Amino acid sequence: FPDHYLHHFTFEENILEAESGCSIIALAVAAKEKALCNLEFASGIPGTVGGCIFMNAGAYKMEMCDIVEEVQVLRDGELVWLNKLDMGFSYRHSILKEHPDWIVTKVRFRLGYGDKDEIAEVMASRRERRLATQPLDKPCAGSTFKNPKEVPAWEAIEKVGMRGVRIGGAQVSEKHANFLINAGDATSHDVKALIQVIQTKVKEEYDIDLVTEVEQFTWKKEEMTLSTPTK
Fold it and tell me: I need a labelling partner for 181 at 20 to 30 A (CA). Which of 70, 84, 100, 216 fits?
């Protein structure tokens, strides 16, 4: 791959072709400069194109699948293009989760035409909203759980009294209950234990299975032991 980073992108009218290592925030800014819209929703997502496609990232009632035309993947040693239907997109899901050996290399997005100043205003207002409602000043991995159909994840977590609860250095954010922050020297065990406590309480209280949105690598339930949460 060129210079090993896969961070190049080009525009051809309203088609944005970006390599998988590109920052999705940088692409949203670049699209704004060309008065191209529909990427505003991603202007606050701290991830790469490849990661966003993998999980069909979204915000403000839009997702990657709303603007994706094609995805190029390295599959069985060959570069192939997959269309939107091939990608099997759904809420925070794509076919890539079923094929961890496939590697996203490039994506084509179809954007809309808009007004540069209006796009900038939308991006600025959403940034202000994120700063006001999410603990972006603290170390965290973003939203911890997917929103179940019954109720937003943060609301279920708050209703079972978990807002502000801490295990070791991991804490449920006071600002947004679906964010787990590192309140000081948190270990992976602290985070895993806190996730399990939240899932257990929400299941017992509302019979809702909270599914993690963050990707968990080499986490085995049999290795997890519950720690005592504190306020």
Answer: 100
What kind and span of H or E run contains 194?
Answer: helix 188-206
Domain boundaries, the chain: 2-132, 134-223
Catalytic pick among 19, 40, 63, 213: 213
**Across 112-123, average pLDDT:** 98
Supply the pTM of this predicted model.
0.80
Q: Does domain 2-132 have CATH number 3.40.50.300?
A: no
The pLDDT value recorded for residue 225 is 47
Closest CA to 196 of 185, 215, 211: 211
Rounded distance, CA 25 to CA 159, Å? 33
- For residue 75, indicate whether it is catalytic: no
Long-range CB pairs of 201-206, under 8 A, 24+ apart, other chains included: 201/160, 201/161, 201/162, 202/156, 202/157, 202/160, 205/159, 205/160, 206/150, 206/151, 206/156, 206/159, 206/160
> Which is the catalytic residue, given 92, 94, 166, 173?
92
Q: Is 17 annotated in the active site?
A: no
Q: Of 20, 94, 143, 173, which residue is the catalytic one?
A: 143
SS3 label, residue 141: strand
Out of 115-119, 136-140, 198-202, 227-231, which region has the weakest mean confidence (pLDDT)? 227-231
Q: What's the whole-number average pLDDT of the chain?
A: 92
Residue in the block written with tokens 């406590």: 197
> 92 an active-site residue?
yes
Report the top-level CATH class of 134-223: alpha beta
